[in-house]
Design goal:
The chain is of the alpha/beta class. It contains six helices and 14 strands. α3 crosses α5.
Length: 280
């Protein structure tokens, strides 16, 4: 329906690699995965190690069709695809969306990742129906299954600034929109295109991987800071920002201190924790 509330759920908050230790339990140790339930379907941003837990919930709810938007094929964003339970369900339909990496198509990249010699099962071995949608940065489309409806879910894309490139996504319907902007390093032109891309959005999901000092030491790694995210949120007039993609070494106590600082400086920005639910 037209004014259905969207439910955003956080399943994974880490970058680079899962952080399974006791010092990471409060914010969570799984890698990037965030879902948006728009009422008649579900969109999943990235397939990090948080994805299997989401998959178990979907299975319990008997949800059979999902749309997974992959920002890029770096392993932390795809770890959860390997054991994703819906791939084993012959009644499931899984849409995977993503862009090319250098000269390799999204499909070729996925096939190289999922399957021999790294994993016993490949895309062609899954009982589920898997649709692969090849995207180019700048592409816009109506989500499969919502085309032709009077209130389609539209997806727009933007090339991120990340080694090998990442894809940023904007998911919209009527006056609601979620902007997923992980793995992107800012320079002036990037900041400008991103602010334009995110203009008037409901929620900006942001890469808060680095502190300022870490960012200076790792220029070119393709990540950003929560302060940059708060600035983009303000420039774009987005209602709130969700900070995530924490470095895998950032402990709960470290993040708690950062979050306090953020709350003072940018009250419209919140730090993601696994299990967090946001309604928009």
């Amino acid at each position: 329906t037209m004014n259905h509330t969207w439910t955003v759920n956080v399943w994974g908050v880490r970058g680079a690699f899962p952080a399974p230790g006791a010092a990471f339990l409060e914010y969570g140790g799984n890698t990037s995965c965030i879902s948006v339930d728009y009422g008649s379907g579900i969109v999943i941003f990235d397939g990090g190690s948080g994805l299997p837990e989401l998959g178990r919930c979907l299975k319990d709810r008997k949800v059979r069709e999902v749309h997974i938007l992959i920002s890029h094929l770096h392993i932390d964003h795809c770890l959860g695809l390997f054991p994703f339970p819906l791939f084993q369900d012959p009644h499931a339909r899984i849409h995977l969306y993503g862009g090319p990496h250098e000269n390799m198509s999204f499909r070729k990249g996925l096939e190289a990742l999922l399957g021999s010699p790294y994993w016993p099962l490949g895309l062609k071995d899954f009982p589920a129906h898997v649709d692969i949608h090849e995207l180019l940065p700048g592409a816009g489309f109506d989500l499969a299954g919502t085309e032709g409806s009077s209130h389609p879910i539209t997806i727009r894309t933007l090339a991120g600034n990340h080694p090998g490139q990442s894809m940023l996504y904007r998911m919209s319907q009527n006056d609601k929109s979620v902007i997923y902007a992980l793995d992107c390093e800012l320079d002036k032109p990037m900041e400008h295109s991103l602010a334009e891309f995110a203009q008037g959005g409901s929620l900006l999901i942001w890469d808060a991987n680095f502190t300022e000092a870490e960012l200076e030491a790792h220029r070119g790694w393709g990540h950003s800071t929560w302060k940059e995210g708060a600035a983009v949120r303000r420039m774009a007039g987005v209602r709130s920002a969700l900070m995530t993609h924490y470095a895998s070494g950032h402990t709960d106590s470290f993040l708690r201190a950062r979050e306090l600082c953020c709350r003072e400086y940018a009250p419209a920005s919140i730090f993601a924790r696994e299990g967090l639910e946001i309604r928009i």
